[in-house]
Amino acid sequence: MTGNTLAGRILLPLLVLLTSGCLIVPHRAVRLHGVIVPQTATTTIQPGASTREDVLHCLGRPERVEENGRYFIYQWTMSYATLVVAASAGYSGSMVAVPVSTETHFLCLEFAPDGRLLRSERLHDASLFKSLHKTVDPWMNKSTPHPPGVSP
Question: Which of 64, 66, 113, 118 supports an S-S bond with 73, CB 3.0-4.6 Å?
């Protein structure tokens, strides 16, 4: 009986190890989170001319609104590759797929107190530990050049 238990303790993990594997599968960009804001959607939005209402009409509700509407943040995450891990034991098995190559995109907009757009910028974060604040906060803390006709 002891021999069977010992063989089971060694043979089963060895069998699982020998019949499992992983593979990284590159693929076309796939949206994982958020609503993609295409470059063409922002061509009509102009600093100094466009208002908060214009932006809402054109792009919809932002992912985040900061400082009582001073900043609108649109955010979306794309995946470019997936890790597939498979394991089997006898007649049963399992498979897991996890996105491994992702990039988070941000469209950041700042508005003046009168509601007109001051500036906009596209940012992205391809780091392993993505953070909205790590990427967007430095942009929000930059000094804002005011377009002609827009009071600070």
Answer: 64
Number of domains in the chain: 1
In-domain check, residue 7: no
Q: Which residue, among 89, 79, 94, has the nearest Cα to 13 in the 3D structure? A: 89
Q: Name the residue range of residue 60's domain.
A: 21-141
State pTM to two decimals: 0.68
Residue 122 binned pLDDT confidence (cut-offs 50, 70, 90): very high
Assess if residue 68 is contained within a domain.
yes
The dihedral formed by the CA atoms of 51, 54, 59 and 62, expressed in degrees to the nearest 10: 40
Q: What is the structure's pLDDT at 124?
A: 84
In the chain, the amino acid numbered 68 is: N
In a domain, 15, yes or no: no
Q: How far apart are CA 118 and CA 140, in angstroms?
A: 12
**How far is the CA of 70 from the CAs of 7, 36, 37, in angstroms?**
67, 21, 19
Long-range contacts made by residues 143-147, C-beta under 8 angstroms, separation at least 24? Answer: 144/110, 144/118, 144/119, 145/118, 145/119, 146/112, 146/118, 147/47, 147/48, 147/118
Q: In this structure, is residue 63 part of a structural domain?
A: yes
